[in-house]
Design goal:
With 459 residues, this protein is an all-alpha fold. The chain has helices spanning 2-21, 26-59, 63-79, 81-91, 93-111, 120-138, 141-152, 155-186, 191-210, 222-230, 241-246, 251-259, 261-282, 284-291, 296-302, 304-326, 331-346, 358-374, 378-385, 391-403, 405-420, 424-444. Belongs to the major facilitator superfamily. Phthalate permease family.
């Protein structure tokens, strides 16, 4: 009798819990916070490109010098990836990401004061150093995003989750480019650094109040936790710190990652995909102003269409990838198909060399960035394949390869412009990278699956 009552009561509780669970979507609030932070992240990266034309005239900087200043962010961003990933694995995303947001925002504010230094050499050095520090501070951001998504989302939702935070890079332009264009034209170029940096400092403290691991979140529903855990979410992420500290990462582990053909193919493709990103973040506004004769304010609004298309493409790519998984297609097929189709569309950037009207330019740029967004599933793939013991570090290594593009693209395009006086060669250079990414996923990556580290026994 008692057993029967217990079973009946348990069934009732289970029924209520399931009912309640449909209304508990804590993981989506976490994703919204990551989206906001990533949009701010890319807004801060784009401050320099939006200020570039008036700043270079004001300070007397040529295209090669600007190319090197553009690249300063990525030198540090690349250097900081592996240490940033290691810190995330050791101390967790909540703590490390807070310091990341706070510091990159503070250094962004400081950039707005460099013109007061007076001496041109000192100004150039300070600009390079501060952008370098912004890059160093931002280095844990995307490995942190990957760690949080791997913790909060089951595999079948991970493509969409990663696509959402990754597409924030385009939405950042939709939100911030017209606003920054207005600040530059109506106030002065320094103001965008003060406003964007100040906003980031405020948001860093909001992060501390919002982010927890699934097992520690004060509002997470038990059924939601069960759904995440049973679906492959690493719900203890960032909480088993003592265990992480005991098992130290060895160079042999990193060597294993670099020896994997699958991972190497993913890393190379990410470098190529990011080439399109960094063109957009650095030289694109300059291209619109100098090559296509737009004003700064027009360029700010013109950048919205490609960014919005990139955002829509990014969301669609993730949704379609996850839909294919739910249709029982293989993980490999579900991830590769949007990437390959997206990269094929991205090559349309080269068509801009053969059209003259501003409308046609914006159309083909929008098509290219829709494709780039649609195919930007690299972080979803990393959440699928990174070894469980090294999510942060694997993400750091992935981002090291990817953001080497931020060093190469600004400098190479700076030299192309200096040599030819035209963006034609630059657009071809960027378009070729989309093809290399496509071929990398077709011929190098192979089957997409979680990488297993080979461990050696220790006493």
């Amino acid at each position: 009798m008692e057993d029967s009552q217990v079973r009946h009561t348990t069934a009732g509780i289970s029924s209520v819990s399931k009912k309640t669970a449909t209304h508990t979507k804590t993981r989506f609030y976490i994703l919204a916070m990551i989206f906001l932070i990533t949009a701010l992240n890319y807004g801060d990266r784009a401050t320099l490109s939006m200020a570039a034309s008036p700043m270079s005239q004001d300070l007397g900087l040529d295209t090669i010098t600007m190319g090197y200043i553009f690249s300063a962010f990525s030198w540090a961003y690349v250097i900081g990836q592996i240490p940033g990933g290691w810190l995330l694995d050791k101390y967790g995303a909540k703590r490390i990401y807070f310091w990341s947001i706070f510091l990159w925002s503070l250094f962004t504010v400081f950039i707005g004061f460099t013109h007061y230094l007076g001496n041109t050499g000192l100004i150039i050095s300070s600009l390079f150093l501060l952008r370098f520090l912004v890059g160093l501070a931002e280095s844990p951001a995307f490995p942190g995003n990957s760690q949080v998504v791997a913790a909060w989302f089951p595999t079948k939702e991970r493509g969409t989750a990663a696509a959402v935070f990754n597409s924030a890079q385009y939405f950042a332009t939709v939100i911030f480019a017209p606003f920054m264009g207005w600040l530059v034209s109506q106030v002065h170029w320094q103001s965008i650094f003060w406003v964007m940096g100040g906003l980031g400092i405020v948001i860093s403290f909001i992060w501390l109040k919002v982010i927890y691991s699934p097992v520690n979140h004060p509002t997470v529903n038990p059924k939601e936790l069960e759904l995440i855990k049973d679906g492959g979410g690493l719900v203890n992420m960032g909480q088993n710190l003592q265990e992480n500290q005991k098992s130290k990462t060895k160079f042999s582990d990193i060597k294993q990652l670099l020896s994997s053909r699958m991972l190497l193919g993913i890393f190379i493709a990410q470098y190529c995909i990011n080439c399109l990103t960094y063109f957009f973040l650095t030289w694109f506004p300059v291209y619109l102003v100098k090559e296509r004769n737009m004003t700064i304010l027009q360029a700010g609004f013109a950048a919205v269409a490609p960014a919005l298309c990139g955002f829509i493409g990014g969301i669609l790519g993730g949704l379609i990838s996850d839909r294919l998984i739910k249709m029982n297609k293989s993980l490999t097929f579900a991830r590769k198909l949007p990437i390959i189709l997206g990269m094929l569309l991205s090559t349309s950037i080269v068509v801009c060399n053969y059209v003259d009207s501003q409308t046609a330019i914006i159309f083909f740029m929008s098509l290219a960035f829709f494709g780039k967004g649609f195919g930007s599933l690299g972080w979803a793939v990393m959440s699928d394949v990174a070894p469980k013991e090294m999510i942060g570090l694997s993400g750091g290594l992935f981002n090291t390869f990817g953001n080497t593009a931020g060093i190469v693209i600004p400098i190479v395009i700076g030299y192309i412009l200096s040599t030819t006086g035209s963006f034609n060669g630059a657009l071809v250079f960027v378009g070729i990278h989309a093809l290399i990414a496509l071929f990398s996923y077709i011929f190098l990556v192979g089957k997409i699956e979680r990488f297993q580290l080979k461990t050696t026994s220790s006493h």
